[in-house]
TrEMBL record:
This is Glutaredoxin family protein. It comes from Pseudomonas neustonica. InterPro entries: Glutaredoxin-like, Glutaredoxin-like_YDR286C, Thioredoxin-like_sf. It comes from the Bacteria. Gene3D superfamilies: Glutaredoxin.
Amino acid sequence: MIRLTLYGTSACHLCDAAMAELAPLKANGLQVREVDIVDAEELMTRYQLRIPVLRREDTGAELDFPFDLNRLLDWLQDVLAEEG
């Protein structure tokens, strides 16, 4: 099972848009954990100018927004191909 983390923060309209793109995949069992970067100084330093950022927990690969469903599927496929 692929597990993803979406780094963002509250009141971030781009983060809401990213979650909307992920919704069809979540409906099919993809696990997405949301992390508010405000809760950790290290995350603020790393992501504050990039959010939202999607990260695969198994490989550490990251995808910066903007992305749509097709781009997201291509990224997941690319990461899967690199593993295989």
